[in-house]
Amino acid sequence: MDFRKHVRERAKKARGAYEILRSISNAHSGIGPKASRALCTAWIRLMMTYGAEIWHDLESNLWRLLEPFQSLALRRATGAYRGSSVAKVETIANVEP
Predict the structure, then answer these.
(1) Quick check: pTM over 0.70?
(2) The dihedral formed by the CA atoms of 15, 20, 23 and 24, expressed in degrees to the nearest 10
(3) Which are the contacts of 37, defined by CB distance < 8 A and separation ≥ 6?
(4) How many of the other CB atoms lie within 10 Å of CB of 36?
(5) Which of 40, 44, 59, 97 is the most exposed place for a label (fewest CB within 10 A)?
(6) How far is the first Cα of the chain from the last one, in angstroms, to the nearest whole number?
(7) Is 69:48 a contact under the CB 8 Å cutoff?
(8) Sign of the CA dihedral 24, 93, 55, 66?
(9) Tens of pLDDT along the chain (97 residues)?
């Protein structure tokens, strides 16, 4: 079975969710980092991993399609710089890789 179409759709939805998170978590009048982190873990990660129980063992390379959106959202939620390593940002956000 080929799950690439499903994962691409998940990536597309995650990108849209990230754009919404980006617009509501600006530095001057947006939500705080704690609420951003909660939205990132509860909304964006859940959106990205929907159905992963089925395809994660079959095609493990598909995770690479989702990793950029997770790192973008976590950087936005934690306030980390773009050059920060993904592993350290995941540790700060208390999120599993």
Answers:
(1) no
(2) -140
(3) 77, 78, 93
(4) 22
(5) 97
(6) 25
(7) yes
(8) positive
(9) 577 888 888 888 888 888 888 888 776 677 877 787 787 777 777 777 777 777 666 566 777 777 777 787 778 777 788 888 888 887 877 777 6
Domain around 62: 4-93
SS (H, E, C) 32-66: CHHHHHHHHHHHHHHHHCCCHHHHCCCCHHHHHHH
Q: Tokens 């599993």 correspond to what residue?
A: 96
Tokens of 27: 């530095």
Residue with tokens 């390593």: 85
For the chain, the residue count is 97
